[in-house]
Please model this.
Amino acid sequence: MDQTRGHILEVKDRKSIKITGVKHVDSYDDKEIILKTSMGDLIIRGTDLNINSLNLEDGSLQVIGLVENFLYAEEAGARRKNFIKRILK
Model:
């Protein structure tokens, strides 16, 4: 799948995650994975997290471990633009 086509987040029993639209993995350890997707930054938090497979050519990622939460955030560039807009008002 071409990563520009879309972003899908599939969770099975809070123990297995499949994600498409992945552009880059910024950092990861067994408690937190931070990545960039076509829909912005995504933070996955949990216990015993492990990247099972990563293919940046097709933008796919598989994670195993116990998932506790997901957090989407705007990309850094978008945050800076919004901050500047608020200052200039």
In short: The chain has one helix and six strands. The beta strands are 9-12, 16-19, 22-28, 32-37, 40-55, 60-73. The first strand starts at residue 9 and ends at 12.
